[in-house]
Specification:
- Two copies of one chain form a homodimer.
- Chain A is α/β, with parallel strands linked by helices and 249 residues long.
- Helices cover 33% and strands 12% of the residues of chain A.
- Chain A has eight helices and six strands; from the N terminus they run βαβαααβαβααββα.
- In chain A, strands 1, 2, 3, 4, 5 and 6 form a six-stranded parallel sheet that branches.
- In chain A, strand 3, helix 5 (119-128) and strand 4 (150-156) form a beta-alpha-beta unit.
- In chain A, helix 1 packs parallel to helix 8 (207-222).
- The radius of gyration of chain A is 19 Å and the shape is globular.
Chain lengths: 249, 249
């Protein structure tokens, strides 16, 4: 068995589910459970980072670095590179890095808080997506450290769909409000960011609408190999200093 | 003495400095120190939330609610309202809410991580900007709970200025990457968001350039009453469901 855009048998494909909700009976946790089941049934091996259940520490701090390159003055990115090279990063970081590097697909399930990810997931990005293996210099976007891997996001909002898009109250969702995450974090490190699954108005919908949303999410996961990939900046359109080049003839 | 856009004497104006950097010798901490001095010299009273120094817990969780309205199923926003009304929110939240409500001006100093705020500051927003006093129903943007107060953000980036703006590598900064924070969090609760101060390329600049940046920040703070306010969505352009109304004649 081979799947559309990958040469390996489905059985060798590995997903990492990164989950950011505290409640087992929440809609977001139902999405995570459903993604796990769908992927396993399609032959994926599935690893998990359930951030609340792990008690994941989201605060990037000097305590992350066991042996500082510069003990006097802390520059996070420089110490991240040094910590990775010398194997002295805090173990809760290095174990997450290993899980990410072993995965072909990252699945993020979270409630949108303040048009962004919850702090516990923001901190997972802040601490785990370290300078060096994930990005550095011109190794960003299509040349980022995770190039070749994919990301699928599924999130809930209180808002309704008509509050987003051109001319709407809040403006565009994926390329406006959530751009910092979809492009600025996931795309930046080279991930192919699949069209996300957005569940609107979740706290206010009835049981039938909730089931319908979950059915649509199941189809989204089942069809992940045919989902569009969000467009990202193309490095070849920028010079060595990342200034825009004139358009090619 | 009265200042431009406020009737009260400067001595009665109150600022809250919300700071998110772990290092006393960092550029961002230098900005915070400078804001404190400038504001005090101009007669402001200054309160502070130094998030790393306080060990602020950024994780919104069931532990925030001392007496649940619904012990079976947790909906964060509903429990926030209930917790506020009954005085049963966790004390580290209620004390921050009091500081925000007592302030006329919020000053945020932070390093941009992943085109957003550090997790510790994201979690301060997640836990402190509660449904009820901060927003709810049509009480958003110009009608938000903090209408009449102002916000000034000052942040550092590793990137250079030419990587932002129309046609650039990362796109617009204030209205693109940082829109979720400047509009989606600060503007959403009614704050007048002053033009932010952006310090580019900070980890790589020399001492003279660092001093120049701090001089420019000093002038930014000294002139805060004349800074432009970022445009926000206007509620009168949307109907009761927040769908766009046809433009007025």
């Amino acid at each position: 068995v081979t799947l559309a855009n990958d040469d390996r048998p489905a059985a060798e494909r590995r997903a990492l589910l990164v989950h950011a909700h505290s409640e087992p009976d929440s809609f977001v946790t139902a999405m995570r459970d459903l993604a796990r089941r769908e992927l396993r049934e399609a032959g994926w091996s599935v690893a998990e980072s359930d951030l609340y259940a792990m008690g994941f520490n989201p605060i990037l701090s000097p305590a992350d670095f066991g042996a500082r390159k510069n003990p006097e003055h802390l520059v996070y990115a420089l110490e991240q590179r040094h910590g990775f090279e010398t194997g002295t990063l805090a173990t809760d970081i290095s174990s997450e890095i290993e899980k990410v590097m072993a995965a072909d697909l990252l699945v993020f399930t979270f409630p949108v808080f303040w048009f962004s990810v919850p702090a516990i997931l923001k901190g997972w990005i802040d601490r785990v997506f370290i300078s060096g293996p994930f990005y550095g210099g011109r190794r960003i976007y299509g040349s980022g450290g995770l190039a070749g891997k994919r990301a699928l996001c599924a999130f809930s909002l209180g808002s309704r769909a008509h509050m987003f898009g051109s001319g709407s109250l809040h403006g565009d969702l994926e390329f406006g409000m959530l751009r910092h995450f979809l492009q600025g974090a996931l795309g930046y490190v080279g991930l192919d960011v699949l069209e996300p699954f957005t569940a609107y108005h979740v706290p206010y919908v009835d049981e039938a609408a909730r089931r319908d949303l979950l059915d649509r999410f199941r189809a989204h996961v089942a069809g992940l190999d045919t989902l569009p990939v969000l467009p990202m900046p193309k490095l070849e359109q920028f010079d060595a200093t990342f200034a825009p080049l004139p358009p090619a003839e």
